[in-house]
Amino acid sequence: MPDGNGCCTEGYEFAGYISCAVHLLEEWMGRETLDDYLSFLNYVLWVFTPLVIVFILPLFILLFLYLSILFLHVYKRKNELREAYSNNVWDGARKTLATLWDGHGTIWHGYEIHGLEKIPDKGPALIVYYHGAIPIDYYYFLANVIIHKGRTCHSVADHFLFKIPGFKLLLEVFSVMHGPRDECVRALREGHLVGLAPGGLREALFSNEMYPLLWGERRGFAEVAIDARAPVIPMFTQNVREGFRYLGTGKLSRWVYERFRLPLGLIYGGFPVKFRTYLGDPIPYDPNLTATELAKKVQRAVQSLIDQHQKIPGNVLRALLERFHRRPKNE
Questions:
Q1: Tally of CA atoms within 13 A in the half-sphere of 314 that contains its CB
Q2: What positions does the domain Phospholipid/glycerol acyltransferase occupy (predicted)?
Q3: 283: β partners
Q4: Active site includes 23?
């Protein structure tokens, strides 16, 4: 505690030293100046702490992905001496990670999936979905397909994902490909499920709370479905744009992306909003449809799911409140 000269005597507890420090600051700065400084510091913390949190939360998803990768490496070492090259060596790992991701979706987003019965138990199907700022809803969908259907869905991802350090094993185990047309057709002809988002990274970055589909004139996915004679299943997740958002949709960011295919901005959010994934009716193979006609038909199907299940414009607070609103089971 301070003595008459403003000094601290020995033998006092930690709280005494704190009081002493405050007293010395008051003498050095003046009491009014110190009070003003502390008030300003309190204001800064009150304003900026929420901002820091919304930028940190997306990093937890990245951390969870790297923890998944670490688990795969441990699993690989454990099994490399027995069945190291068998076709199903990764089944246990996939099911374990699927259970963990499904648990994450249930706890954090109250995740629901409607129409999973439309995914065939065997045989090919092309799943076409709307791409959120972070396609975490698609991760939850993949987990449900593994758990409830016992199938692995091959996924088409942007080249950018393959450049992230340490992701190679994760992408291999979950059959992620960068999307050459022949590779997609081959996977479908072999009887696999294939999932893709025609809007890709462009839709992830530059779509907004109005949920526009940024597909342009893309029809490659339709050509794949026609060549493989596979049905197309549209998919959309309610509130996916409210879970995570992209900061940096200006002209400069768009120019950088279009020129170099690199995102120039920040992902923020991680809000525990309600996620509901809806699968539309399968669009069967029709030899009379051209690729352009099929692409437009699929786009209308995805847009119909958005119109039916998403309130426009999207709102984070409303999406948070929907966590407490139960919908009829038959919806």
A1: 26
A2: 112-235
A3: 232
A4: no
pLDDT, residue 295, reads 97
Average confidence (pLDDT) over 65-74: 82
pLDDT reported for residue 28: 53
d(CA 228, CA 249): 36
Q: Distance between CA atoms of 232 and 125, rounded to whole angstroms?
A: 6
For residue 107, give the H/E element and its range: helix 91-109
Low-confidence winner among 47-56, 184-193, 208-217, 281-290 (lowest mean pLDDT): 47-56
CA distance 176 to 157: 7
Choose the most confident range, by mean pLDDT, from 21-25, 67-71, 102-106, 161-165: 102-106
For residue 161, the tally of other CB atoms under 10 A from its CB is: 14
Per-residue confidence (pLDDT) for residue 5, from 0 to 100: 46
Q: Please tell me the CATH code under which domain 90-324 is placed.
A: 3.40.1130
Distance separating alpha carbons of residues 132 and 207, to the nearest angstrom: 8
What pTM did the predictor assign? 0.77
Q: Annotated catalytic residue: which of 23, 73, 109, 131?
A: 131
What does the alpha-carbon distance between residue 92 and residue 78 come to, in Å, rounded to a whole number?
12
69's tokens = 């990768």
Strands 232-238 and 276-279: what pairing?
antiparallel
Residue in the block written with tokens 């992902």:
267
Maximum distance among all alpha carbons in the chain?
A: 97
